[in-house]
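Example 5.3 — Type I restriction modification DNA specificity domain-containing protein
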Amino acid sequence: METKKLKDIAELTFGKNSSRMTKEEQENIYNVESLRQDLSYLGEIKPSEQVGIQAAFNEGDLALRLINPQAAVVSPATAGSILSLNFAKIVPNRTKVDEWYLCYYLNEAEDVQKQIELSAQGQVSTIKRLGAKFLRELKIVLPDLEKQKELGQIYRNWLIYRHQTEDALVQQEQLVFNAIAKECTND
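Solution (predicted structure tokens):
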């Protein structure tokens, strides 16, 4: 295993302030709902081979929320969305890093959380916001590429399972509450 800086394994792009966007761009902005949609996307995601607009997400890119950090692999459902100030676009060099492994590492690795906490020491604010310099220098532990793909697929499968389980719980909750409401009205 080796450790690399994020800037050495991926291209990073940072969004612009929405006040500098056109009305059309503002209507198609990538937001927290887009991130949730990508994290729960059940279909196949095929990384884009062509270079798109730098300020827009392509399928297979990573979207990283900069405030209270969370990453997702961009799905076809949100591809084309415009990069805003609150997100970074990460285009992995797929000869060095698997996008699902990188998503796992950014979201779940204790090492990343430690790096974030160390960078935040001395700051007054309790809100974690990642800066461009910090992200470029972020250290990522990389097993060989085949192992990354294997681990990344396990993470993807877990995300799908979690989404399906959460949906089932919501449905069960509705059934229970409907039964309770029905019993209350029968008295």
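Remark. The radius of gyration is 19 Å.
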